[in-house]
Description:
The chain is mainly alpha-helical and 337 residues long. The chain contains twelve helices and two strands; from the N terminus they run ααααβαααααααβα. Helix 1 (2-31) packs antiparallel against helix 2 (36-48) and helix 7 (188-220) runs antiparallel to helix 8.
Amino acid sequence: xxxxxxxxxxxxxxxxxxxxxxxxxxxxxxxxxxxxxxxxxxxxxxxxxxxxxxxxxxxxxxxxxxxxxxxxxxxxxxxxxxxxxxxxxxxxxxxxxxxxxxxxxxxxxxxxxxxxxxxxxxxxxxxxxxxxxxxxxxxxxxxxxxxxxxxxxxxxxxxxxxxxxxxxxxxxxxxxxxxxxxxxxxxxxxxxxxxxxxxxxxxxxxxxxxxxxxxxxxxxxxxxxxxxxxxxxxxxxxxxxxxxxxxxxxxxxxxxxxxxxxxxxxxxxxxxxxxxxxxxxxxxxxxxxxxxxxxxxxxxxxxxxxxxxxxxxxxxxxxxxxxxxxxxxxxxxxxxx
Length: 337
């Protein structure tokens, strides 16, 4: 029963930390005079991507043998899938839940250029990462060249995002800074300290959650593959989901969606590049299924954005369909790392 208590406690830690992080990152964007697109796609996305980023790094760099590499590659490919499918589905549910108190109702009013840019980047770079897995070991040079391109592309993406003009209409709508309640405008040091504390709590909460899930899996006899392929990735993506739900409830759709799409960009470029550099990056059929589902979900959203210049809650919910297909392939034994 203790593992169930720890699950609840860890979820509570992540939820509280996500709220503190959301508050701090909005103030940091204000301090740095960044657009909402930059705040969501860079500051929030990279910060909350820490839990799922740490797992493949540890598995690849500090685990010995091929098993560590397989775990690392699985984690690298699993994170974009969760973001493109389940995280979008949860955000769509949040839009429906809060539709009665949102002025725009079920319509998602996010910055069109930011979302289409992020999704377009993800589709191109993640496709390159997946296709690189087809290159034989004898042509290792081409794998490394592509990985170098992926690293360069992310820094180019950062330059483009940070160069965006600030959203003037979003000024003056920030809630009080939690670590400076008595000051109308907190100092930059206070804001950075609040974000740091929140990130530490997010990582600790995610780690505690994963540990509790492992204990529950052992006690209740849950198969190990369910833990490795399904439960742990869901746990490490909780910060993005919580942050996006909070922002949806506050009608800050650009931040909510940018938090997810920005993490997708990060998880499709720098982290796969790490995998290519430090493993042989020979992908299995299951890895291609995982990658294809993530890309398909992203393309559905990208096509609606190009057609309608906005996205709806229904389209976000479609991500749940792709995740359901993924679960079906797992239980049918088609996906294995």
